[in-house]
Amino acid sequence: MMNQATNTQTLASLDPNSVESRYVVNASQGQTSSYVPSTAGSEAASWNMYRVDNHSVENGSFSNSTYHHVQQTEPSTRTVQDGSNAASLATSSSLGTTNAQPDYSGYNSYSNSTDPYSYGSTGYQGYYNGYQQQPNPSYSQPVGAYQNTGAPYQPLSSFPNTGSYAGPASYSSTYYNPGDYQTAGGYPSSGYSHQTTTWNEGNYSNYTTHQYSNYTPDTTGAYASGNAATNSLHYQQHYKQWSDYYNPTEVSCAPGTENLSIASKSTQVSQVPGVSGGYATSNSQAPPSFTPSWRPEPSSSQTPSLQPGATVTGGYDSYWKHGASSFQNQHPTPVQQHFQKALDSKPSYDNFQEQQKTACPQGLNLQYPVAQQSSQSYQPPLQTVQSVDTRRVSKVQIQTNPRIASNLPLGLPKMDKDGSNNNTTAKPAYISVSLTKPIEKVLPNDAADSVLKVGMFPKSLKNYVERALGQCEDEKQMAACQAVMKEIITKATNDGTLHTRDWDAEPLFPIPNADMVDKNSNLQNPIPVSAIPKYKSPTKRSKSRWEPLPEEKLLDKLDPVNSYAAKYSSWVHVNEKDRKPAGASSEGKTDIMNSIRFPLMEQKSASKTVQRPVKRQRLADGNAADNGDASSDSDKEQNLTAYYSGAIALANTPEERKRRENRSKRFEKVQGNRAQINHFKAKNAGSGNLYARRASAMVLSKNFEDGGSRAVEDIDWDALTVKGTCQEIEKRYLRLTSAPDPSTVRPEEVLEKALLTVQNSQKNYLYKCDQLKSIRQDLTVQRIRNQLTVKVYETHARLSLEVGDLPEYNQQCQSQLKILYGEGIEGCHMEFSAYHLLCVIMHSNNNRDLLSSMSRLSDEAKKDKAVQHALAVRAAVTSGNYVMFFRLYKMAPNLNTCLMGSLCRENAI
Amino acid sequence: MAYPSMGEAHRRITDYLNNFSDAVSDQDVASLAQLFSFSSNSPSLLSLADALNFFQDANRLIKQSDKFSQFGEILAPLFRLLQSYRLGNLVDAYHAFEKFANAFIQEFRNWESSWALQALYVIAYEIRVLAERADRELASNGKSPEKLKGAGSFLMKVFGVLAGKGPKRVGALYVTCQLFKIYFKLGTVHLCRSVIRSIETARIFDFEEFPRRDKVTYMYYTGRLEVFNENFPAADHKLSYALTHCNPLREANIRMILKYLIPVKLSLGILPNAWLLEKYNLLEYSNVVQALKRGDLRLLRHALQEHEDRFLRSGVYLVLEKLELQVYQRLVKKIYIIQKQKDPSKAHQLKLEVIVKALKWLEMDMDLDEVECIMTILIYKNLVKGYFAHKSKVVVLSKQDPFPKLNGKPVNS
C-alpha cells in the first residue's frame, strides 16, 4: 500500500494532473477534502477518475467480497475503478498489495501522462490506499474472471479490439489521465473520440438536457449525494449511495429512451452471462446513465459537473468528481458503460471462459458497432468492446465521456465494466475522468476490469472450464459450453460457492446444443445491432461532424452493423475533427494516441497481468521511465504503432490476426494523420501491463527514431513466434504461404534429430536439400538462432558444395552463415571464410569485393589453415602460378577442393 | 557557459534574421554562406546558438515580420539545427538540417540566377559532414547509421536541381564530388556511375566550364574508380590531370593523388624518384620501387605484407601484387646480363635451373615446374621475348630486345 501510495504520489507530483490524485483522495473518505480541491484544480478530469473508481467498486461488489467492501468503502472500490487501473489493481488485490502497487505505479505513469491535467499528488496517495485495501478483495475475484476473459480481451485488443484495449488503457488512464481516455477513444477507432468530440461540440447542449433530466430522476438521490460527496467528505456515503444507485440507476436509466434501448440490450446481456441481479442493474444503470447522461453530461460538464456525476452513480464518485470538474466526462462515461455492458454481456458471455476466437470476433464486432453507436459517446462503444471481452458483468461504465471530454477540453472516459458475466464482477473500471481530453481512457479501464474478473476465478474453476471446453468439438459447442459455464459460474458466484466448491471434482455438464448457442449468439448479435442504431446516431453524428453537424446525435438512425468499416472510418474522421476542435489540438491528439495505445497495452497486460502481476510491476516501472523519456511526438507515435502491433500479436488465430492487422493498418493511416498524438499515456499505461518481452520491444521501438513500422515488425515477431509441436522427424519442405501452424512445426529437439538423420542419410542430394530446407524453415519460423542453426546451415553449405550447387550455397547458406557468425554464434567460421574467399576469387572480376573480404580477415583468420590455403590460391591465381594452384588443389583442406574444381571450370584453367 | 541576457539573445537572433534577409535581398552570397556554415564553429554562430537555446521561442521572432516569415520554412529548422548542434545532438541536428536544406532548395529553385550557388555549396558540404558525424553518433549508440545515405539521396536531388541548362549547372560538379565522397565512404561506388554518365555525356555540361577545384576532385575520384577497374591508362590520365591541376601548395591533396598515381605508374613501368616518395611521405612505396628496380621478389612480398592493411584499405593491394610479374622480368633480365658478361654467345639461352637458384638465393622456394609456369606467363604477357624449350628446360630469349619495356603501356592481360 505504501508503495503504491508513494508511487501515486510521485506520479501525482510528477504530473500536473493533480486532479486524478485528488480523485483518489476522493475515493478515500479522507479524500473527500481532496476531492473538492481536485475538482477545483483539475476539474472534471479528477472527477471522472473518481467515478471510475466507483464503478470499479461496483464491479468489485459483484465479485462478492469486494462488493461488500465496495459498499462499505465504495470510495475505495471506486478507486479500483480508477484503476481501470483497476485491472492492475484487481490483480494486485488478488496477489496482495504488492500487485496493487504495481498497478498503482502504472497508474502513476498515467497520472504522469495526465500531468498536464495537474492532479493533486497528495490526493493520489489517499486514493491508492483506499483502493488497495478495499478494492483489492473485489478485484481478486474479478481477476479470475479476467483471466478467463483475458483471451477474449486480447483478441479484442486487436485493433478492432483497440476499443477493448483502449478500455484497459483507459483504466489506467482513467485514473490519472483523462487524456488517456481520449486516446483510448482514438484506439477503438479514432471515430470514437470523434464522436465524443461531436458530443462535446454540438450535442452537449442536448446531452446535458436529456441526460440530466434522466439522471436526476433515475438517480436523483444518488446524484444529490454525489454532489454533496464531490465536495464534502461524504464520499463514503455517496459511495454507498452510488452503489445503491448503481442498481437503481440502471433501472432508472431504462426510462431514458436511449436507456431503454440500452436496457434491453443490457438485459439480454445479463441473461446470457447469467449475471447476477447486480449485473442487470448495472446494465440498466448504465443505459440510463449512458444515453441520457452522455448527452446531458456534456452539457452538465459545462454546467455543474456534480449533477452528471450523480447520474453516473456510485462509480460515479469519480464521475461526480469528473462532473464537478468536467461533467461532460462523467455523463459520457455512464453512457459508455451502458454500451459496454450491453456489448460486453453478450460477447463476453459467449466467449467468456474460453475467450474463444470466434467469440472474440463477435465481441469485437459488437463492440465496434457499439462503439459506433456510441460514437456520440465514443467512450461507451469502446468500453463496450472491452467489456464484451472481459466484462460480462459490465455493470456500467462511462467511457464515452472521456472522449467527449477529449473533444471538449475535459474528457471523462469512465468505463465501468461489470464482470457480471464471469462472476458478476462488475467492474466499472473505466474512469474516463480525463481532465480535459482523456476521455478515451475509459476503454482501457474496461479491459482492466476484464482482467480482474479473470483473476477472480479460482484455479480449479479454470481447470474445470478447460475440461468442459475440452469436450467441445466445434465452435458452436464451445459457445454453448461457454454459455452454460457462465450460468454455472454466475450461479456459484451468487451462491458464494465459487471459491469453496471443488471444481476439480465437479462433473462436467453435457454438451449443450450448439443451436442454442447459435441462438444465443444471434440474440446477442441483434442486441448489439439494436443498440447500434441508437449508438449509430452517434456515428452519424460523427459523419455529420465532418460536415459540421453537431446536433446530428439527436438523429438516431439505425446504421447497418455491416458498415463497421465505414463507421470506423467515419470515426476516425470524427476524431480528426475532434482534435481540431479541441483547443489543444496537438495535445488532444497526442492524448488520443496515448489512450489508443493504452487500450492495446492494457488488453495484453490484462490478460497477462492477471497471471503475472510481478511482471506488471516491472513493466509499470518501465512505464514510468518511459514517461520520463517520452518527449517527442514521433516517439510516441512509434510506440503506438508498436502497441498496435502488440495488440495484433495477441490475436490467437491467424485469421484474427489478419483481420486485426487490416484494421490496424486502417488505424495506422489515421495515426499518420494524427502525428501529434502522444505516446505518453500509452507508454505509461501500456508499459505497465505489457509483458517483459513486449516491454523490451517497446523500448526497442522507442529507440528507433524513424522506424515506427520497423518497431512494429520487431514486436510482431516477438509476439508471434511459434512454438512447434510437431514430432515428425522428416518433413517435406513447402514454402509457407500463410502463418505457420505450430502443429506442423518441429521443436528444436526434433530438429536436432532431423539434422542427424539427414547427415547420416544415404539418400541423394535432392532429398537432403529438401529436408534441410524444411529444417531451416522451422528454425526460422521459431526464430531459433543458435549453434543448431549454424550446424544446419553448415551442413547444407557443405552438401551443396560437394555437389557443386553453388547458387544454393551462395544465396542461402553463405549469406546466412555470415550473419550468424556475425552474431557471435560459434561454428566453423574459418572454414567458411575460406570458402567465401574462394568464391570471390572465382568471380574475379570483382576486385572490390576481394579487397574488402581480404581486409576483413582478422589476424587470427589469416593463421587458419583453410584461410591460408585460400589466400595462397588467390595469390597463385593472380600471379598465374598454375603449378602452385594445382598443388594447392591437391592439398586443399575441407571442401576447398570442390570450390577449386568449380574455379577451374569457371576460369578454364 | 555564460548565458546571454534575454535582451542580448533577442538581439542576436534578430541580427541573424536581418543578416539573412539582407543577404537574400542583396544576393550577397558570401554572407549568406557564412550564415549557413555552422560547422565552422564561427563565434557568431556559436553565440547565436546559445542565444537560441536560451531564448526558446525564436519562431515567434520569425513570425513577427513578413521579412522573416516568408523564409520561415528555412529559418525555423535552421534554428533548430543550430540548437541541436550546439547541444551536441547531431542526429536531431541532421534532421533539422535536412528540413532546412530542402526548404532552401525549394527557394533556390525559384531564383533565376545562380547567385546563391556558394550557399548551396556550403549546404552540400555541411550536410555531408553532419551526416557523417550523426552516423558516428548513431553507431556509437548501437543504431544503424543511415544518415549519410540520406544525405546522398538529398544530394542527388540537389544534383537534379542543378542539372539544367541555366547558369546553375556549373554547380553540378561540386555536388557530384560531394556525392563521390559519400559513395566512397559508404562503399557504394557503383552509385557513382549514373552521376558520371550524366556529367560526361550530357550535352549541357562542358567539362572545362566547371570550376577547377571541382574538376580536380572529380578527376581524382574517377581516377580511383579506374584503379579499381584496373584500367591503368585511364586512371593514369585522370590522376595525372588531377595532379597537374591541383593547387601545388596543397600537399595533402597531392599526396592523396599520388597514393593512387604511383601504383598506377608502376603498373605502367614508370618508377618514381625517391625524393618524391620522401616529400609526400609515401615511403610505403619505396620498397616496392626498390624491388622493381632490383628484381627482388622477396622485397616486394615483404613490402606488401608490411603494409598490407594500408594497401588493402586504399584498394591498391591487388595492383601492387600484380607488379610481381615485372619483378620476375627484372630478375630474369639481371640473370641475362650476368650471363652475357660471362659468355655473350650463350647469354640468350637461359636455363631454368639458374632461375631456380636465383630464387632460392632470394629465399623463394620454387621448383622447376613453377618457374616454368612463370616463364611461360612472362612470355605470354610479352614481358619476355623468346620461346620455351620444354624438354631441355631452357628459355631461349630473343636476340632483339628480349625484355621490352612497358613504357606507359599496361602489361598484357
From TrEMBL, chain A:
Tell me the ranges covered by the SAC3/GANP/THP3 conserved domain, including all copies.
733-900
Top-level division of the source organism's lineage: Eukaryota
- Bias kind Polar residues: ranges: 60-82, 271-310
Q: Name one Pfam family in it.
A: SAC3_GANP
Q: Where is this region: Disordered?
A: 60-109, 271-317, 528-547, 602-638
Q: Where is the composition biased (Low complexity)?
A: 83-100, 620-631
PANTHER family documented for this protein = 80 KDA MCM3-ASSOCIATED PROTEIN (PTHR12436), LEUKOCYTE RECEPTOR CLUSTER MEMBER 8 (PTHR12436:SF4)
Q: What is this protein called?
A: SAC3/GANP/Nin1/mts3/eIF-3 p25 family isoform 3
TrEMBL record, chain B:
Q: Name one GO cellular component term.
A: proteasome complex
Task: Name the Gene Ontology biological process terms.
Answer: ethylene-activated signaling pathway; poly(A)+ mRNA export from nucleus; post-transcriptional tethering of RNA polymerase II gene DNA at nuclear periphery; root development; transcription elongation by RNA polymerase II
PANTHER family linked to this entry: PCI DOMAIN-CONTAINING PROTEIN 2 (PTHR12732:SF0), UNCHARACTERIZED PROTEASOME COMPONENT REGION PCI-CONTAINING (PTHR12732)
Q: Which InterPro entries match?
A: Csn12-like (IPR045114), PCI_dom (IPR000717), WH-like_DNA-bd_sf (IPR036388)
Q: Where is the PCI domain?
A: 216-402
Q: What is this protein called?
A: Proteasome family protein
The protein's organism comes out as: Theobroma cacao
* Keyword Amino-acid biosynthesis in record: no
- Report whether Plastid shows up as a keyword of the record: no
Provide this UniProt record's keywords sorted from A to Z: Proteasome
Q: Name one GO molecular function term.
A: RNA binding
